[in-house]
Amino acid sequence: MAKSLSAVAAVILFLFALPWAHAPVHAQTYPVRPIRIVVPFPPGGTSDILARAIGQKLMEEWGQQVLTDNRPGAAGNIASENVARSKPDGYTLYINTVGTHAINPAIYAKLTFDPIKDFTPIGMIGATPNVLTINDNVPAKNVKEFIDYVKRNPAKVSYGSAGSGSLTHLRMELFKQETGVFMVHIPYRGIAPAITDLLGGQTQAMFPGLAAALPHLRSGRMRALAVTGKQRSPQLKDVPTMEELGFKGFDAMQWYGSVGPAGLPADVVARLNETQVAVLKAPDLAERLASEAVEPWPMTSEQFGQYIRSEIARWTALAKARNIRLDE
After folding, report:
1. Exposure check for the chain: N or C terminus, fewer CB within 10 A?
2. What are phi and psi of 134, to 5 degrees?
3. Single pTM value for the model
4. Element holding 56 (H helix, E strand)
5. Of the candidates 128, 149, 142, 130, the residue with the CA atom closest to the CA atom of residue 223
6. Please, what are the domains in the chain?
7. Closest CA to 124 of 311, 313, 265, 324
8. What are the b/e assignments for 242-263, b being 16+ CB within 10 Å?
9. Tens of pLDDT along 129-178?
10. CB atoms within 10 A of CB 201
């Protein structure tokens, strides 16, 4: 009997000594069925394009179907709540943005989810700068001349945004705070109508994302004065950054990342992050990102979580200073 027990013990010790015996169970089996990537905006936007492009790469890597689930509404809050309430098994992922996970928590009085506690960071995908643009009829060739023009024409200059509480709104409010100028805010339902009225002269200035602005900058109907971010954009090499011009706090970008529900197994998060970082290096995906003026910006899960926290703090401070609150 003793010999039998010792033999069994020896077999157990041998099995645990094997390399695969210590591998996490989830990592060995994940994924075994289709994955859903939730997008907080309608088809056609940058978030949607990124979700589909990365989803295609994940299918090629894993051999599992990846489905894009567009859930627009309430500035992304509908999609965020859906993901926060999903099962944390790695089969529901989310393309989150500076809007959904940093600005919304700063400006909405009531949210049905916590941007930190209800999500597991996976990794940053990429970021694009915003561009301080003006209508070509505005007599200013640089930021200083634009500030002087606005100060000479108080309350006669208006700026458009993609909507109250959008990044295009808060970015210009930061500009107003830093320069002491006054401009009337004209909120629109989306970036397209806001750009249309800027081109038509109904508004004089705007802070759109680079991808939305590029076609009009190239046509000459819109003039770029400065970009956000820590360095100049490759697409606008002659346009200085706001930081170059002495304006602090304009290093933030329009960013896109991926998260899952809170409680995702650590080994699943590790595989998702590792694969995402790898696919971001694919030349054809980099080309697709460049068409949206998005620069790949890989981070670890931990780095991305810290970055989200810093962004919430940044935009909460501005919203408080400018008294920007919704749903009150």
Report:
1. N
2. -135, 160
3. 0.87
4. helix 46-62
5. 142
6. 31-128+254-321 (3.40.190.150), 131-236 (3.40.190.10)
7. 311
8. bbeeebeebebbbbbbbbbbbe
9. 999 999 999 999 999 999 999 999 988 899 999 999 999 999 999 999 99
10. 11
